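Input/output pair, single chain:
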Amino acid sequence: MTVFAHRGASRNAPENSLVAFQTALDQGARAIELDVQMTRDRELVVCHDLTLDRTTDQKRFIKDLTLEEVRAADCGSWFHQDFSGQTVPTLQEVFRLVPPSVLINVEVKNHPCHQGIIEESLLELVAREGRQESVLYSSFDHLVLQRLHRLDPDAPIGALFYANILEPWRYLESQGIAPFSLHWAEEYVSRELVQGAQERGVKVFAYTVNQADRARELAGLGLDGIFSDLPGEAGAWLNQDDPG
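Output:
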């Protein structure tokens, strides 16, 4: 069962920071989840929210800022003073930090102004860094997933859902998306969903699982993996020797 370090080891370090990803690696993580957005000058940076408000000392939309301006923000102090001075990383920096043996789930947090732009830039960066075999693309924006699939039919696509959807694999296929995985809110996961997807060769991953009992319950449904803010502990809950 795969355990994705959700935004890195985000209970131990500021989410989506290099230190959070390094902490996850130190805890033995073999899969990491992160969020990507595009700056005004079309650089790919790692941050969950459309604005810097919640996780930095700045209060502006990322889409309105250059990379230099985003990098001027402190993304560590909000979490704890020990992390003061941490900066919002670029996706390239994460690729340089995380070894190719570790799967990276890149969740695209797309702003409408970058529709049709971010997908091509993302695929180009992944190819340039030689990470095609270790990146999984996901998004709640299924137009993004459709474009990624059209640009690269071999790109593994993970469709995010927060709802009960009947036969989601049929819906995705009808939109020209061949999913590698379904990324499902843990409270909506059912045995029927897992079995139906797996019968069609589609994996199911649940987010965000931070309780031992729930992790074990989901494992009992035959789930393929979970996202957790506590990747080291989650691996222990599931008695995993090899979370990859």
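Residues 6 and 33 are 5 Å apart (CA to CA). The first helix runs from residue 18 to 26.
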